[in-house]
Design goal:
Distance between the termini: 27 Å
Order of helices and strands: EHEHHEHEHHEHEHEHHHHHH
Low-confidence stretches: 307-312
Strand content: 5-15%
Shape: globular
Number of strands: 7
Mean pLDDT: 96
Structural class: alpha/beta
């Protein structure tokens, strides 16, 4: 809650956490605790849970709240906590967002409703309802059309920004780089914007971006944070060098559907006790595992050792 009163502080490289499950597909809170500590020990600027990488669609509301509670306890106001609280159902979104508020979240990240493919007016009314229910909680729109089959337009984002003081930003997980610029042009450069497309994280900073909410940071929290820090320190060439060095790990994430490759590698490295994903996702095939291992070998120096986790 330390950052809630001043959302302008929410700038940096944040990890969009995977959600650990046991081999029996149960929520693994002990594994999540170890993952959070490994992330913070290795330089993540903040943590988010409940986004696409966290498999929220296959969890109950109770499981999602339990995960948020643990991450809130582990961050303990040392770094920002930005949970994803969106769902297809408005009632669930309100329940999850209320829990995030009560747990001390600094901001709620709310995905555009998936599957329903609402109109722009439908999206405006959806976010307006949520923002009105939580006037003291900063809210960010989460635009991820590859997952939701709907894109919120810059004009709709502007209407929400204009009409609700607590709608303070957007996570852009779209490869339409013009969308980034047009949102800024309509909403102003003080509007917060984080990239969720790994290879657009660094380019977004050139437009005034606030940082990243990154799946890649599950594997390489220090490197992703360092890339951000180098750019902000005026060391653009060093940041660009790191951007290209991270390419193999970015490719690794998407050998099969995210987050299965990341979970498999984290389990191989001992950061997670199990690579389990819930159906309909599956653990990567043997061929995919070989590809993941090859890509990891090309950038393994950017992935921290798991010794600290194993020693706890």
């Amino acid at each position: 809650m330390r950052f809630r009163s001043d959302p302008a502080q929410l700038r940096g490289a944040y990890t969009a956490l995977v959600t650990p499950f046991t081999e029996d597909e149960e929520l693994d809170l002990a594994g999540l605790k170890s993952l959070c500590r490994w992330q913070l020990d290795n330089g993540a600027h903040g943590l988010s849970i409940g986004g696409s990488t966290g498999e929220p669609g296959v969890q109950t509301v109770e499981e999602r709240i339990a995960g948020m509670r643990l991450v809130a306890e582990e961050t303990a106001d040392r770094v920002p906590f930005l949970p994803g609280t969106g769902s297809l159902k408005l009632s669930e979104t309100l329940e999850l967002t209320a829990a995030a508020r009560d747990l001390g979240a600094d901001l709620a990240l709310i995905v555009t409703p998936y599957y329903a493919r609402p109109s722009q007016d439908g999206l405006y009314q959806w976010y307006s309802r949520i923002a009105s229910e939580f006037p003291d909680l900063p809210i960010a729109v989460y635009n991820v059309p590859v997952r939701t089959s709907v894109e919120i337009t810059p004009e709709t984002v502007y209407r929400l920004r204009r009409d609700h003081d607590n709608i303070v930003g957007i996570k852009e997980t779209t490869k339409d780089f013009e969308h980034f610029s047009r949102v800024y042009h309509r909403c102003g450069r003080d509007f917060l914007m984080w990239s969720g497309i790994e290879l657009l994280c660094l380019p977004l900073l050139a437009l005034g971006g606030s940082g990243f909410i990154s799946a890649l940071s599950n594997l390489a929290p220090k490197a992703v944070a360092t890339m951000y820090e180098r750019y902000r320190a005026g060391r653009q060439d060093a940041a660009i060098d790191l951007h290209y060095r991270l390419h193999p790990l970015v490719d690794l994430l998407f050998v099969e559907t995210n987050p299965a490759p990341a979970k498999w590698l984290l389990a191989e490295l001992g950061v997670l006790p199990s690579p389990t994903v819930r159906p309909p996702l599956v653990t990567p095939s043997l061929a995919a595992q070989n590809t993941i291992a090859t890509l990891y070998g090309q950038a393994r120096d950017l992935v921290p050792a798991a010794a600290k986790v194993n020693a706890r």
